[in-house]
């Protein structure tokens, strides 16, 4: 693919201008170790087309690029018998913690409950009535 940005960090990795520890690559995607290694084996999957985040994806883009998530996830799991699970994370937009503005998916192996990872989730169910839930669901449905 030639739809890459000149100054994008991940586009530079795709072009080979910046080295990476590649674990999988084909015409559509590149998967490589995240330099931070939140846990051993932490891997990023990026499309070889510059898309900022999921808001930029067409259905064709999703079909073309996201199909490799289970392929790489399974390879990560099989690479180490101590891996018991995997966090699949996407930070979509700056407000959601996206740092590199090129779509990427984090595959973070989990070995124990004591891994140095935090996945905070807040339960706000007591703040929603059935009408509130239905209004939110309808607003989303109306945009599909």
Automatic annotation (TrEMBL):
Q: List, in alphabetical order, the Gene Ontology terms for molecular function in this entry.
A: catalytic activity
Q: Which Pfam families match?
A: HIT
Gene Ontology BP terms? nucleotide metabolic process
Q: Which InterPro entries match?
A: HINT (IPR039384), Histidine_triad_CS (IPR019808), Histidine_triad_HIT (IPR001310), HIT-like (IPR011146), HIT-like_sf (IPR036265)
Residues annotated as the enzyme's active site: 104 (tele-amp-histidine intermediate)
Residues spanned by motif Histidine triad motif: 102-106
The record ties this protein, via Gene3D superfamilies, to: HIT-like (3.30.428.10)
Residue stretches making up the HIT domain? 9-118
Transmembrane ranges, per UniProt, are: none
UniProt name for this protein: HIT family protein
């Amino acid at each position: 693919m030639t739809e890459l940005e000149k100054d994008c960090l991940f586009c530079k990795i795709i072009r080979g201008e910046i080295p990476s520890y590649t674990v999988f690559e084909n015409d559509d995607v590149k998967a490589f170790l995240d330099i931070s290694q939140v846990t051993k084996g932490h891997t990023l999957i990026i499309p070889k087309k510059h898309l900022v985040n999921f808001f930029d994806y067409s259905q064709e883009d999703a079909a073309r690029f996201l199909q490799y998530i289970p392929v790489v996830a399974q390879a990560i799991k099989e690479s180490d018998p101590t891996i018991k699970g995997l966090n699949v994370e996407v930070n979509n937009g700056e407000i959601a913690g996206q740092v590199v503005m090129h779509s990427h998916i984090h595959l973070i192996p989990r070995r124990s409950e004591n891994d140095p990872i935090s996945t905070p989730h807040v339960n706000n169910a007591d703040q929603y009535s059935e009408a509130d839930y239905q209004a939110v669901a309808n607003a989303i449905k109306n945009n599909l």
